[in-house]
Specification:
This protein is of the alpha/beta class. The protein has 18 helices and 13 strands. It has a six-stranded parallel β-sheet, sandwiched between helices. The protein has a four-stranded parallel β-sheet with strand order 6-5-4-7, with helices on both faces. It starts with a strand and ends with a helix.
Length: 430
C-alpha cells in the first residue's frame, strides 16, 4: 500500500493521482461508432449479433425483453433476507427522494402587473442503464428507478447485460418488482446505448439514458450524445477517507478498502496529516485482505499500487484542500469534529460523517443516491436525483397596463441588439 508524501511528489506524480483511471477511450469510441451505425441501420439484428459476440448469449427479438412472468418468478425465487434488504433500502431511498421534489408550479410578482414563475414536469421517458460486468447490481436499479418513479416519469425502460444463462439475476428482477418497473431488456454495452438512442423493432427509442457503465458503454454515450441525453458522467468508483490523528485505524482500514474492491481501475485513498495513523493502517489492511476472495483481494492490491493508497499531508487544512482538488465520488470524514470539517468540503459527490457511516450504508440502504459523478466531475455535477427526471418551463404573464409601462425598455434592448422584429412587436402593438 503506497504512502505518498504530498509535498514531495512531482507535478507529474500528483497529476497521475488526481487523474486516477480517467483514460483515453478513443479506441472504444471508434468501436462504438461502427457498432452504433450498424444498430441504426439493422436494428434488432445488430443488437442480437453483438449481444452474442460480447456476452456469449444467443437471444431472439422475442426473448430480448423480460416478461412480467420472469419478473414475478425472479421475485419469488429470491431468498427472504435479500428481499427484505431490498425492500428496506427502497423505503429509505424513496423517502429521501420524495423530499427532493420541487413545487409543481410557483409564481412571483417582479413588478406591478408582471407575474413570472416555473412549471415543473417529468421527462416523457428514460432508459436506465444497469451494469453487470463484475456482478449483479439491484442497488443501481433502486438508485436510478426510484427517483424516476418519484418524479413521475411515465415510461421507464431498463437495459442490462444478460447473465451467462441469458436471463437477469433474481435480485435485479425483485428490485424491479418492488419499485414497479416492468420494461426490461437483456441488452448491455454499446448495442444497448445505440438501441435506445435510435430505437429498434423491439427496443424503444428514449430521450435520455442514465446509469454507470464500462468504458465501451461510456464511449457509446459520447458518440451518441447528439441523439440522446446521456446524463451525468459515472465511471470507475473512487473514494477518499479524510482522517486526523483521532481516527480509529481499524475503522479507517476497513473503510479505505470498500470502493477499492469494485475493480482494478477504482481509486481509494486515505488522506491524513497523521503519519502515525498511516503507519497503523497499513498492517491492518494487510490483515483484512487475507479474509477476502482472490478476486477482490487482487482488485484492492492493484488499486493501492496504482491510483490509491495513502496521501500524507502537513495539516488538516492541506488534506481538505486536496479533497476539494480531487473532487471524489464518495468521501468519509473521520475526524474529531466531522461537522466542523463539513463546511470546508466544497467538491464531493457525497460526504459521510463520523465513524459509523461507511460508504457501504450509502451504497445500499441509507437513502441518498449512490450514482455519483466521478473523475473530478463532482466539481460541477451532483448525484442522481429527481431533478434528473424533471424539466422546468419558465412561465410569464404581463397585463396590458404593465406592458405599456415596460415596452420602452424592451424596445430599447431590441434596438441595441439589432433585432428589428423584436422591436417592431412592442412598438406597433395596439
Amino acid at each position: 500500500m503506497n504512502i505518498h508524501v504530498w509535498k514531495e511528489l512531482s507535478d507529474r506524480q500528483k497529476q497521475i493521482i488526481l487523474k486516477r483511471a480517467e483514460q483515453d477511450i478513443t479506441k472504444q469510441m471508434n468501436v462504438a461508432k461502427a457498432i452504433s451505425d450498424e444498430v441504426r441501420t439493422d436494428g434488432d439484428r445488430a443488437v442480437l449479433k453483438y449481444t452474442e459476440k460480447f456476452d456469449g448469449v444467443r437471444l431472439t427479438s422475442d426473448s430480448m425483453k423480460v416478461s412480467e412472468i420472469e419478473i414475478e418468478e425472479g421475485y419469488k425465487r429470491l431468498d427472504d433476507k435479500t428481499k427484505e434488504a431490498i425492500e428496506y433500502a427502497a423505503k429509505n431511498i424513496r423517502d429521501f427522494h420524495q423530499k427532493q421534489m420541487p413545487e409543481e408550479m410557483w409564481f412571483t410578482n417582479v413588478d406591478k402587473g408582471l407575474m413570472v414563475g416555473e412549471k415543473t414536469t417529468p421527462i416523457v421517458d428514460v432508459c436506465l442503464y444497469v451494469p453487470r460486468g463484475k456482478g449483479s447490481f439491484p442497488s443501481v436499479l433502486l438508485m436510478l428507478g426510484i427517483p424516476a418513479v418519484v418524479a413521475g416519469v411515465k415510461k421507464i425502460v431498463v437495459v442490462t447485460p444478460p447473465n451467462e444463462q441469458g436471463t437477469c439475476d433474481d435480485a435485479l428482477l425483485a428490485a424491479a418488482k418492488i419499485i414497479g418497473i416492468k420494461e426490461i431488456y437483456k441488452v448491455g454495452g454499446i448495442q444497448a446505448v445505440s438501441a435506445v438512442a435510435f430505437g429498434t423493432e423491439t427496443i424503444p427509442k428514449c430521450h435520455k439514458i442514465i446509469g454507470p457503465g464500462n468504458s465501451y458503454a461510456t464511449a457509446a454515450k459520447r458518440v451518441l450524445a447528439n441523439y440522446i441525453d446521456t446524463g451525468l458522467p459515472a465511471g470507475p468508483s473512487e473514494c477518499i477517507i479524510l482522517a486526523d490523528e483521532k481516527a480509529d485505524p481499524h475503522k479507517v482500514a476497513l473503510d479505505v478498502m470498500i470502493e477499492a474492491e469494485h475493480g482494478p481501475d477504482s481509486a481509494s485513498l486515505l488522506v491524513t496529516h497523521s503519519k502515525e495513523l498511516a503507519q497503523k493502517v497499513v498492517p491492518i489492511v494487510k490483515q483484512q485482505l487475507e479474509k477476502l476472495s482472490d478476486k477482490r483481494r487482487s482488485f484492492i492490491e492493484t488499486n493501492f499500487s496504482l491510483y490509491g493508497g495513502i496521501i500524507l499531508t502537513d495539516s488538516l487544512k492541506e488534506s481538505i484542500d486536496f479533497v476539494n482538488e480531487y473532487a471524489p465520488e464518495h468521501m468519509e470524514v473521520m475526524t474529531e469534529n466531522p461537522f466542523a470539517v463539513l463546511e470546508d468540503i466544497k467538491n464531493a459527490g457525497e460526504i459521510l460523517l463520523g465513524d459509523y457511516t461507511p460508504v457501504t450504508l450509502c451504497n445500499f440502504v441509507l437513502g441518498p443516491n449512490a450514482i455519483l459523478p466521478t473523475g473530478g466531475f463532482a466539481k460541477t455535477y451532483s448525484s442522481v436525483s429527481v431533478m434528473d427526471f424533471l424539466k422546468r418551463s419558465s412561465v410569464g404573464y404581463a397585463t396590458k397596463e404593465a406592458f405599456e409601462q415596460i415596452k420602452s425598455h424592451a424596445y430599447n434592448f431590441a434596438t441595441a441588439e439589432g433585432f428589428e422584429t423584436h422591436a417592431l412587436a412592442v412598438k406597433e402593438r395596439r
